[in-house]
Amino acid sequence: MKIFKSKQKLQSEISKIRNISFVPTMGGLHKGHIALFKKSKSLKSNILVSIFVNPKQFNDKKDYLNYPRNLRNDLSILKKFKVDFVYLPNKKDIFSYKTSNKIFLDKFSDRLCGKTRKGHFKGVINIVNRFLEIINPKYLVLGEKDFQQLYLIKKHILRNRIKTKIISCKTVREKNGVACSTRNNKLNSSQLYIASKIFNYIKLNKYSLFNNPNQIKRKVFEMGANKIDYVKIMNVKTLKKPKTNVEKFKIFIAYFLGKTRLIDNI
Ligand code: PAF
Fold first, then answer.
1. 117 is in which domain, residue-wise?
2. Which residues line ligand 1 at a C-beta cut-off of 6 Å?
3. Where in the sequence numbering do the catalytic residues fall?
4. Can you give the CATH number for the domain in which 83 is found?
5. pLDDT digit string (tens) for 131-190?
6. CATH number reported for the structural domain that contains residue 243 in this entry
7. Nearest atom in ligand 1 to 54's CA
8. Which atom of ligand 1 is nearest the CA belonging to 143?
9. In terms of CB atoms within 10 Å, which of 13, 46, 208, 240 comes out highest?
10. Are 207 and 149 part of one and the same domain?
11. Helix 7-14 crosses helix 120-135 at what angle (to 10 degrees)?
């Protein structure tokens, strides 16, 4: 496993490699990331993982400073999975060059997390685009838990005619149903229990509640959430409210347990 902190050195190492599978992360690696590494392996490509907590995608400075970081543990996980290359840029390395592509933000960025996290998706697309320009990977491997992020990155890639192919992976969950997330490290055991109750309630009642987000909100508060950013129910293709429960739809939620904000789509 080769570790790079400078984009020049990384580029001179990988410039001739045509089949790189790239997994961008902010560290705090968990089973969800491991599924992305395994998927990359199955693509018979060279795996490159980045770890960078991107300040531009945090709308709240405190949230950025408190984001869980554990580089030593992350590197040992990456070594175990025989990742080929790791890129650990610093802010100057990644933000100090002029990009060729323009950031494209689809209008879907104004909904769901975009409503309460101003500038978040612009920050995400900015960093992902920079990585793509530096690495020029064959594949970009992303998780479906961040449905809106995945959708917006796809649109940016399409609009800029970037050749990289997106490979998406299903959300990985703990045994209690809670979606794996770096932010779960911030939850105590009673908050984890509440998160699992919330997931199981939505999963069990998904089809009867397909047109009743307010009922879900009431119940999520009752179960112990202290704030809800949104509960939205959308057809995954049209991004509109489903008219019936036989359409392919998902329930999207963002809520707080204490100071920790969790998102899911079920
Ligand atoms: O999903 C994440 O961890 C981040 O948004 C990403 C894609 C690594 C960009 O910083």
1. 2-169
2. 24-26, 54, 57, 124, 127-128, 146, 149
3. 33
4. 3.40.50.620
5. 999 999 999 999 999 999 999 999 999 999 999 999 999 999 999 999 999 999 999 999
6. 3.30.1300.10
7. 10
8. 1
9. 46
10. no
11. 50
